[in-house]
Design goal:
Layout lengths: L1 H6 L1 E5 L4 E3 L7 E7 L2 E6 L5 E7 L4 E2 L1 H6 L6 E4 L3 E7 H10 L1 H27 L2 H15 L5 E3 L4 H7 L4 H13 L3 E4 L2 E4 L2 H10 L4
Antiparallel strand pairs: 1-8, 2-7, 3-6, 3-8, 4-5, 4-7, 9-11, 10-11
């Protein structure tokens, strides 16, 4: 981390400020030091699809930076954020001298590729209740808490992330509460039946 910090520069972004646009040249990549960002794509008609939401410690934008190509998506700060920028040429030189760092990067890329594969599966093959249950389980793992999780984004952003509407999210949350899977208080989701959520994330059956 000391070696990475030596080649990095800190950039500050206000809430709603763009970090990079789709098509910008990827001459480096980023790491969230503080705050929260989203990576997203816009359709021709202006519809937004959130691909990732990252908090402190997460790296993003590294694949096009390594390829020397343009960013295939855009990124925006969801709140006031401090972002580390690592120039491509300096980082390539660093991993050349530090093979272990390169292996760690490959491991991180592999993990996120698996996550992205699951996300694509959820969006294309699973019903909305399954997607929402899977997201709550993911939050539980990330926050290391099987009893409750804090929703890190708004319902509008959540609906965008799982490919539905805010109204549908609210309706399914109410059904999940009625089925005693969860309880919801503002942005806190209390998990009452983790096994039930796991089953729901696979079956999608929510009567």
């Amino acid at each position: 981390m000391e070696q990475i910090a030596a080649i990095a520069s800190t950039l500050k972004f206000a809430r709603g400020e763009m970090i990079f646009h789709e098509g910008d040249r990827g001459d480096g990549f980023y790491m969230v030091e503080k705050g929260k960002i989203k990576v997203f794509k816009l359709s021709f008609d202006g519809k937004e699809q959130i691909l990732h939401i990252y908090g402190p410690g997460h790296i993003f934008g590294e694949v096009p930076a390594f390829e020397g190509k343009n960013f295939p998506a855009s990124s925006m700060a969801l709140e006031k954020s401090d972002i580390l920028f690592l120039p491509r040429d300096k980082f390539v030189d660093l991993i050349t001298r530090t093979p272990g760092l390169g292996m760690n990067m490959l491991a991180d890329l592999s993990r996120r590729l698996r996550e992205f594969t699951v996300q694509i599966e959820n969006l294309s093959l699973k019903e909305v209740p399954s997607r929402l249950a899977a997201y709550i389980i993911t939050l539980s793992k990330e926050q290391k808490n099987e009893q409750q999780v804090i929703l890190p984004i708004s319902k509008a952003q959540l609906s965008n992330l799982i490919g539905t509407t805010p109204e549908t999210v609210s309706r399914i949350l109410k059904k999940m509460m009625a089925a005693s899977f969860i309880d919801v208080q503002t942005k806190t989701i209390f998990i009452k039946d983790l096994e039930g959520l796991l089953d729901l994330s696979k079956s999608g059956s929510l009567s």
